[in-house]
Amino acid sequence: GNSVTQMEGPVTLSEEAFLTINCTYTATGYPSLFWYVQYPGEGLQLLLKATKADDKGSNKGFEATYRKETTSFHLEKGSVQVSDSAVYFCALILSYGNNRLAFGKGNQVVVIP
Amino acid sequence: NAGVTQTPKFQVLKTGQSMTLQCAQDMNHEYMSWYRQDPGMGLRLIHYSVGAGITDQGEVPNGYNVSRSTTEDFPLRLLSAAPSQTSVYFCASSTGQGAYEQYFGPGTRLTVT
Asked: B2 and chain A: CB distance < 8 Å anywhere?
């Protein structure tokens, strides 16, 4: 079935460093893809999305491009801040009829001053 | 708007006890879902609803019941708690069909001893 896979393990980096979190998908067709972010002690919130192949989603300095050639939707930010410390989840829509999502396992990002 | 609210924030149960996790939204969203979040597992869908009176099972429904008597409320019932149900539970809502943003509540941290 349709699913997403995120790179293993937490990510620790210094302030102003470049961030990449890998996400690959397995799907029939080209379902919409999402990145959600979870700040400490909070629920998830939508960071960005792409609804078709070759689309680029962007928000708060983060970007991700829906690449059908490599079945990927990697999240990038050019210069991270301490406030970007959070858990990031890649997700794929399983059904447009009921908005069911399949989530990756998430990546903890820790930004050190 | 309060968005999606969940109560309680924390709960400790003994094995075999029952309880109801409350979820309410004030955005008039048709779609509501319950997820559980476990370390290294990401989010897994328990049950979902596409409107009042309509519910369906997600990925991990065993041990949980739901009902949707109103658009606003979507309670999750644990019938006989087990230690395997120790988790953080999130309720989410969204509007309509398609790649719409899901709005998450702040979560309920449940421990079953």
From this structure: no
The count of CB pairs under 8 A between chains A and B is 61
The C-alpha atoms of residue B4 and residue A45 are separated, in whole angstroms, by: 12
Cα separation, A74 vs A10, whole angstroms: 15
Distances (CA, A) of A21 to A3, A9, A60, A90: 17, 10, 16, 9
The residue of chain B nearest to residue A50, with distances taken between CA atoms, is B99
Q: What is the pLDDT of residue B97?
A: 62
Summarised one tens digit per residue, pLDDT across range B45-92 is 999 999 999 999 999 999 999 999 999 999 999 999 999 999 999 999
- Distances from the Cα of B110 to the Cα of A7, B10, B20, B24, B104, angstroms: 28, 6, 11, 18, 17
